[in-house]
Amino acid sequence: EIQKREQEESERLLELEAVEQKWIQQHEEEVQQRLKMQEEYNANLLEVEKKFEEERDKANRQQAQVEALNKLMEERVNELTQRKEEADQRRKELEEKQALVDAKAKELEDMTA
């Protein structure tokens, strides 16, 4: 009877050890799976960060280009405005000279009439 109980307890201990080993193995598999998922997440996060930085750099380059073009356009507008002002001044001078010429021509015409 005692031997039978010892045998049963021994079998129960073996069963518990087997259950414990199975639980440990499952737990280790879960941990490995979580580690793998974390590594994949980290890799994806790095990829997203890299793409974000590339897009940010691209946007910064485009912004710099836009600013450079705006500056060039502003310089061109200033140049054209200055040229127009100079042309207007020259036209005004020419109109004044033409008025003097016209006045002299009228004067001569009046003198010969």
Which key terms come to mind for this protein?
1 helix, 113 residues
How would you characterize the overall build of this protein?
The protein has 1 helix and no strands. Helices cover 98% and strands 0% of the residues. By secondary structure, the chain is an all-alpha fold.
Structural class: mainly alpha
Strand element count? 0
Mean pLDDT comes to 97
Order of H and E elements: H
- Computed over alpha carbons, the radius of gyration is 48 Å
How big a fraction of the residues is strand? under 5%
Number of helices: 1
CA distance, first residue to last residue: 162 Å
Which geometry do the CA atoms define? rod-shaped
In the predicted model, the low-confidence regions spanning at least 5 consecutive residues are none
In short:
This protein has 113 residues and is mostly helical.
Layout of helices and strands:
Layout: H1 2-112
